[in-house]
Amino acid sequence: MTGWDSAWARRLLPPVERAAEHTKVWWAAALTMAAGGGRRGRKAAAAGVTAMAVAELLSNGVAKQLVQRRRPPAEWIPHGDDEDRPDSSSFPSGHTAAAVAFTAATAPSWPWAGAVCAVPMALVAIERVHSGAHYPSDVAAGAAVGLTAAALVRAVPPPRRLPPGMASRCRG
Prior knowledge:
Helix 1 (7-20) packs across helix 5, helix 3 (38-66) crosses helix 6 (136-155) and helix 4 (94-106) runs antiparallel to helix 5 (111-130). It is built from 7 helices and no strands. By secondary structure, it is mostly helical. Helix content is 67%, strand content 0%.
């Protein structure tokens, strides 16, 4: 069984699902960090958004194309809230991949923001199973993709600024 019948989950998780659609919650977090976090916030936001994009490419553009897995059966969802499930492959969870990538890439630059982002990240993972959109293994694979994306982004050195006067010499 993927979903479970719980009054608190039926109240809490649908807004989480809406916030996670099209990565809205992560874009909002990135804007908040960039606007209010100074240089550290901009660095964290850039790392998070970049890792999120890499995770979406890896999960939705590569893994879902290679692994065609059906979504969990509707009869496994006791709360009957299965009408909004996607038609794409269940494996891996792209929502979870994006959430984990954003959070894991943000945390090294700004640990406090990473800790705050960990709460909606965990709720997204729980919601994907509760809604019947994914098996727990899909969410675990999505988390692995997200961690991989964050590690890739963190491993690439940031672009270096050219010394003053060097930019004009490079153009000519």
